[in-house]
Amino acid sequence: MRLRQALPALLAAFVLTGCRHEPPPSSAQIEALAMTAAQRADAAAEQQLQRLAAQGLPVAQRELGILYRARPAARGDAERLLRQAAQAGDAQAAYHLGELYRTPAPGVATDVAAAWPWYQQAAEGGQAKAALRLGLMAKNGDGVPRDAAVAARWLQLASDLGNAHAMFLLSYAYREGDGVPRDAARGMALLEEAAEHEYPPALQELALTVGDPTRAGHLMKEATEHRRNNWNRF
């Protein structure tokens, strides 16, 4: 409701920005505009986003590229915009460009290997999901040679950035000595940390590991609830 009420003023501010020599809109303003364009199919908001992208603003290029990713006919434009933003140093754009290359699309083959450098740029820019993708690619030999040590390094970065899925996978790596020295205590600590982040598989695994039946029951209940209600977070 607040976004809907603020939209006319927001659009007016963008128009004035284009007419006068004023500072460009903030990243938060551009992202709010993109949310309006996507969620409400607002043509005026999308047109303003296009104008901002044409001015070379990386955040606008990224947000317009994300919007176009959902439209198969606009895949080429999405790739171009995301690449422009990523080359300007936008880590989120680099992540979404990697996703574009990795994700199948009607009539377009995936190019998983091409996704790697963009995920790497995004991960080095602080995008936890990109670091997770790199860890999974190296772990599974998906588009790159299978390498457990490389996988563990990227999973460690993703874990350090707060990604619970990576914590869970890394806990297995330490317990099994897969790509890292075997360290059962560290593996258990990572499993506990992933569970604290409410990651359902970690909660379930921990429930099967702890010796306290009462705690195990609580953990299994949490796992079921978070799998049902919060899975998209991960």
TrEMBL record:
Coiled-coil spans in chain: none
SMART domains to which the protein is assigned, alphabetical: SEL1
Q: Which InterPro entries match?
A: Sel1-like, Sel1_AlgK, TPR-like_helical_dom_sf
Transmembrane feature ranges:
none
Q: Give the source's domain of life in one word.
A: Bacteria
Which Pfam family, any one of them, does this sequence belong to?
A: Sel1
Name the Gene3D superfamilies for this protein.
Tetratricopeptide repeat domain (1.25.40.10)
Q: Which PANTHER family match?
A: ERAD-ASSOCIATED E3 UBIQUITIN-PROTEIN LIGASE COMPONENT HRD3 (PTHR11102:SF160), SEL-1-LIKE PROTEIN (PTHR11102)
Q: What is this protein called?
A: Tetratricopeptide repeat protein
Q: Which organism is it from?
A: [Empedobacter] haloabium
